[in-house]
Design brief:
The structure holds 2 protein chains of 2 kinds. Helix content of chain A is 73%, strand content 0%. By secondary structure, chain A is mainly α. Chain A has one domain. Chain A is globular, with a radius of gyration of 19 Å. Helices cover 41% and strands 22% of the residues of chain B. Chain B has a 6-stranded mixed sheet with strand order 6-7-8-3-9-10, with helices on both faces. The radius of gyration of chain B is 19 Å and the shape is globular.
Chain lengths: 293, 269
C-alpha cells in the first residue's frame, strides 16, 4: 500500500522539496529588505546548464552518473552567482517595487534569450535529459539534502554577523548605513546567495522533469515563489519552506474538487494573505506557544 | 547679522588641535539654504553644543557630518581626513557615531540585536565563518555579545535585552540609541536631541550620564539640544545656528549674553 502511495505521490513529494528550496532563494534577498523576483531566471539558467551539459558534453547511454549531477549543480550555482553579481550591482540601486519590476524584466529577458538561442533548443527546448535515478522518488536523495543544507545555511546565516547586517538593512537602511553596515555590499551578497540556491535547484529540476524549456523561468513562476514566501512567512527560514511545500501540494490536494480547484486554490491563497498577513510561520507564533507553556 | 565674521575669528584659534573641522559648509535644498557657510572646530574631549530655533539647520548639519547628506560646498574633516564624498558607513568606520532626532532603531529587533549590529565594523566574519561558527566568528560572537551586554547595562536596559526595540518607552529608546552608537566604539559621538521626550528627572540624570560616557570612552561629543539649562550646564562650548547661519560660538556664558542669540530666540522688533 505504501508502495502505491509513493509511486503515485513520489513525483509530487520531490517537487515540493525542490520548490521549498527555491522559495529560500527569494527569501534570502528579502531578509535584506530586497523584493527580488529574479529567482526563476537563475533557476532557468541552472536548468539549462544541466540540460546542455548532460545532453552534449557528458552524454551517456545508460544511467547518468550522480557525481556529474552534483557537478552540474555546482556549475549552475556558480554561473547563477556570477550573473547575480552582474545584474545585482546595478539593479539593487532600485528600491521596493522598482526592484521587483527590474527583476521581472530580467526574468523576461532570459526567457526571450533562451527562446531564440540554438544551444537552448529554441521554443522546443531540450528534451530527453538523461536520468541519474530509476524513479522520481529517488530524486529525494539529492533534493532533500539540498533543502536541509539550505535551511541550515540560511538559519545559521541569520544568526551571524552578515545576517544581522541583512536584517538591519531591512529594518532601516539609513540607520544601518550610519552604523557602519555597507548596504550595497550586503544587498548584493544576499541576492547572490539566493541566486546560487536557485541555480542549484534548477540543475536538479532539469533532470527531474526530463525536459527543459523557456516555460520554466517565467513571470508566473516569480509570483508563485513570492506566494510561497508570503503565505509561508517571510520572517523565519521555516516560513518559505512550509509555504513552498504547502502551495506546491495544494493543487494536488484539491484535485478531487474537480474543475473548480484552481478557483478554490486562489481563494485559499487570498484567505491566507488576509487572515495571516505575517504568514503561517512567524516568530510571533513561536512566542505565543512559549507563553502558553 | 555678521555671522561669517564671527565664525572666522573662532576657527583660526582652533586649527591645530581639532578633531572635527567644518569649513564653510553649505547645503542647499532647491532654493532653501539649510546650512549656510558654517565653520567651526571641535577639540578632542570637548562637549560641543549645537543649538538654534526650529529649522535652523542643526539636524542638516549632523547629516552633513555623518555623510547622510552630502554638502553642496565646503569642507568637513575628521582627525585631518576629509569626509566629503565618503558614504555614511565609511564615516562610521572612521569613528563617528550618531543618534537620530526621530529615533531610528531597528524596531522589530531586540535591544541586544540593535546593539550587536553596531559592532559590525569591529568584526570581520564572512558568510562561511558565520554559518559554520568557525574561524573568526567563533572568536567574535562571544566578544560582540559581551560588548552589547555591557553597553545595555551601562544605559540601564540589560533587563530588557530580549525585548523588541519598538516596545520601549521613548526615553528608553533614546538610551538604546546611545548604546547602539557606543557599540561603534566611536571617537566622536553626535547626539541629536538626546533629552527629547525625557522627563525632568531623566534630563537631570542625562547630563551626568553624557559626562560619564565622555570620560569612560574618552569621546568627543557634539549634541543638538533644545533644553537650554541642560546645554548651558553641560557644554564646554556652544554654536548657535539661525536660518542656517552660525550666529554665535563660544562658551555658554558668552553665548547666552550674545544679542544676536537673544534676538534669534526671542525675536527682534
Amino acid at each position: 500500500m505504501f508502495e502505491s502511495f509513493f509511486n503515485q505521490y513520489g513525483f509530487l513529494m520531490v517537487y515540493m522539496v525542490l520548490q521549498a528550496t527555491l522559495a529560500l532563494s527569494l527569501y534570502l534577498p528579502l531578509t535584506a529588505g530586497q523584493l527580488s523576483l529574479a529567482s526563476p531566471g537563475f533557476f532557468a539558467l541552472g536548468g539549462y546548464i544541466a540540460a546542455v551539459m548532460s545532453t552534449t558534453v557528458w552524454a551517456t547511454n545508460g544511467m547518468f552518473p550522480i557525481p556529474y549531477l552534483l557537478l552540474e549543480m555546482l556549475l549552475g550555482g556558480l554561473a547563477s552567482g556570477l550573473l547575480a553579481v552582474v545584474v545585482g550591482v546595478p539593479a539593487l540601486r532600485l528600491r521596493g517595487i522598482y526592484l521587483a519590476l527590474a527583476t521581472i524584466a530580467f526574468v523576461e529577458i532570459l526567457r526571450v534569450v533562451s527562446l531564440n538561442l540554438t544551444i537552448t533548443g529554441g521554443a522546443v527546448g531540450i528534451f530527453g535529459i538523461p536520468q541519474p535515478f530509476n524513479s522520481s522518488l529517488e530524486y529525494m536523495w539529492v533534493a532533500l539534502p539540498l533543502l536541509i543544507a539550505c535551511v541550515i545555511f540560511t538559519a545559521r546565516l541569520e544568526k551571524s554577523r552578515i545576517g544581522r547586517a541583512f536584517v538591519a538593512i531591512r529594518e532601516d537602511e539609513l540607520a544601518a548605513d550610519a552604523m557602519g553596515v555597507n548596504p550595497t555590499y550586503h544587498k548584493v551578497l544576499a541576492f547572490v546567495i539566493g541566486a546560487m540556491i536557485a541555480g542549484m535547484v534548477g540543475a536538479i529540476t532539469a533532470h527531474f522533469l526530463n525536459t527543459w524549456n523557456a516555460r520554466q523561468g517565467t513571470f508566473d513562476a516569480s509570483i508563485n515563489i513570492l506566494a510561497f514566501v508570503l503565505i509561508g512567512g517571510s520572517r523565519m527560514t521555516l516560513g518559505p519552506v512550509v509555504g513552498g511545500m504547502l502551495l506546491t501540494a495544494l493543487p494536488e490536494i484539491l484535485r478531487p474538487v474537480g474543475d473548480v480547484r484552481l478557483i478554490v486554490n486562489g481563494f485559499l491563497l487570498t484567505l491566507g494573505a488576509v487572515l495571516l498577513p505575517q504568514g503561517l510561520i512567524s516568530p510571533r507564533v513561536f512566542k505565543r506557544k512559549k507563553v502558553d507553556v | 547679522m555678521t555671522a561669517t565674521d564671527f565664525s572666522n575669528i573662532e576657527t583660526s584659534s582652533h586649527t591645530t588641535s581639532s578633531i572635527l573641522s567644518v569649513k564653510n559648509a553649505t547645503r542647499r535644498f532647491g532654493g532653501l539654504i539649510a546650512v549656510n557657510e558654517v565653520s567651526f572646530e571641535v577639540t578632542p574631549g570637548e562637549i560641543f553644543g549645537l543649538i538654534g530655533p526650529n529649522g535652523a539647520g542643526k539636524t542638516t548639519m549632523f547629516n552633513l557630518l555623518s555623510g547622510l547628506t552630502p554638502p553642496s560646498s565646503g569642507a568637513i574633516s575628521f582627525e585631518g581626513r576629509c569626509l566629503i564624498g565618503l558614504p555614511p558607513y565609511k564615516i562610521a568606520e572612521l569613528g563617528v557615531a550618531r543618534t537620530f532626532q526621530n529615533i531610528r532603531l531597528f524596531g522589530n529587533l531586540s535591544a541586544l540585536e540593535n546593539v550587536k549590529i553596531a559592532q559590525h565594523t569591529h568584526t570581520k566574519a564572512g558568510v562561511l565563518s558565520g554559518v559554520f561558527g568557525a574561524g573568526r566568528a567563533r572568536e567574535e560572537e562571544p566578544r560582540v555579545l559581551a560588548k552589547a551586554t555591557e553597553l545595555l547595562k551601562l544605559v540601564g536596559l540589560d533587563d530588557l535585552a530580549g525585548e523588541q526595540a519598538k516596545n520601549f518607552s521613548y526615553g528608553d529608546q533614546r538610551r538604546l540609541e546611545i548604546a547602539r552608537a557606543l557599540a561603534l566604539e566611536p571617537k566622536l559621538l553626535l547626539l541629536d536631541e538626546p533629552a527629547a521626550g525625557m522627563n525632568p528627572t531623566e534630563k537631570q540624570g542625562l547630563s551626568d550620564f553624557i559626562r560619564m560616557v565622555r570620560d569612560k570612552f574618552s569621546l568627543t561629543i557634539v549634541l543638538i539640544e533644545h533644553h537650554v539649562p541642560l546645554v548651558m550646564g553641560l557644554c564646554d562650548r556652544i554654536a548657535v545656528l539661525n536660518f542656517g547661519q552660525l550666529i554665535a560660538l563660544g562658551n555658554p556664558a558668552v553665548v547666552a549674553g550674545d544679542p544676536a542669540v537673544i534676538e534669534a530666540y526671542l525675536g527682534g522688533d
